[in-house]
Each structure stands twice: as C-alpha cells, then as structure tokens.
Amino acid sequence: MINKVVPSVQAALHDLFDGATIMLGGFGLCGIPENAIAELIRLDVKNLTCISNNAGVDDFGLGLLLKKRQVKKMIASYVGENAEFERQLLSGELEVDLIPQGTLAERIRAGGAGIPAFFTPAGFGTEVGEGKEAREFNGKMYLLESWLKADFALIKAWKGDTAGNLIYKGTARNFNPLMATAGKITIAEVEELLPAGSLDPNQIHTPGIFVQRIFQGQHYEKRIEQRTIRRME
C-alpha cells in the first residue's frame, strides 16, 4: 500500500507557487487547515485564488492571508465576519466571486466528479445569473454553472492513515470531503495519524485515492467564531 505521509507541513506544501488556485476546507473557523494556512503565510506566496466557504476572520484563518495581501481573488459564499475582506472588496483591491452556498458546494462536487457543468435554479433573475446561460426545464428557469477545480486542495481531518484515508469529526466534515476530490494535489493535515488498516473501512469519509500527501498537524487552536452561552441562573 502506498505511503503518502510527508514529515511536515513544509514538505507538504513545498511546491506551492504564486498564482495558484487553492481550495481550503472548513466552515467559518470549523475544520480549517490551520497548519497549512500558517505555512502559506510563511512562504509568502502571492496572487492566490482561494476557494473557500468563507474568508475567515480578521486575525485568524484566511483573514491572515488577506491581511498580508496574498489573495488576488476570493471565491466564497459567506464573508460577513471579516472587516478587512469588506475593505479590500469595496476599495477594488480584491476580486470576489460570491456564490450561493449550495451552488458552491455542487460546483466543487462536480469538479471532483468530472462533471463540467450543471443547471440549478439558484440565482436566476439576480446578479448571480448575469452573463450565464439560462434554460427552462418543466416550466422553471435554471442557470448553467461550471465546475470548480484547484491546483491544491488543503483540507483538515480528525483521523487519517498512512494511505491517506480520512475521517472527519462532527461539523468539521463540512466542505472538506468535497474539496478533497477536486484538487490536482490534495494535502490533508490530521490530528491523529495512524498506520494503514487502522481505520474502520465503514467509517472512512474520504478514501485515500483522493489524497496525495498527508501529515500530522500540530498546535490546533480551534477557535470559535461566535461564542454563545446561556446566562447562569
């Protein structure tokens, strides 16, 4: 069985280049590849096109890349928690493609499945549909949307084995499994790295065939984007 383990995040991202298109897993700050993002900052790669559900917050996640002006274009569905993102968007410093969340997920899934385009009703009659082909099916209008693929998919999993099989935990599953299929090179960072054959095959969410490199992550903060608590009686 092929061993896909690399010794560090530095080894995992050694060939990442300026102008790359990168998918980054996560939803808000949940399930984001913290180690990989830190390495992108250290490498100081520029003109990145980032595909992610969101742009992180000002001082964490993808927000750190925005602060250093490393992102040329952001393809996302939600960016409401990042003031720096808003500033760069309104000033014209950042190119932005905002996509309905379900459409974003399906475009990524289509990229991984080899489906170049599909029709969806989401966005018809709005700015989302401007310049796109529209077609009627059974009396309802649909937009033609194209697949999304990336040079690199950077994802985060709970457990993985040396063959690249992955298990996600709870809501950290989110966009990670979809993106794992849609990168030319998929790099997984995991909290627990186990020998091949250690994972129950029935529990695996991403088969190792989709993963090219895997490494043991370290020092996860796992920040909570919006902490809501109940007042003690």
Automatic annotation (TrEMBL):
Organism whose genome encodes this protein: Adhaeribacter aerolatus
PANTHER family assigned to the protein according to its UniProt record, in alphabetical order: ACETATE COA-TRANSFERASE SUBUNIT ALPHA, KETOACID-COENZYME A TRANSFERASE
Entry keyword Transferase: yes
Pfam families found in the cross-reference section: CoA_trans
Family matches, as InterPro entries: 3-oxoacid_CoA-transf_A, CoA_trans_fam_I, CoA_transf_BS, NagB/RpiA_transferase-like
Keywords: Transferase
Sequence similarity: Belongs to the 3-oxoacid CoA-transferase subunit A family.
Domain of life where this protein originates: Bacteria
Keyword Transferase set for record: yes
Name the UniProt record assigns to this protein: Succinyl-CoA--3-ketoacid-CoA transferase
GO MF annotations, alphabetized: CoA-transferase activity
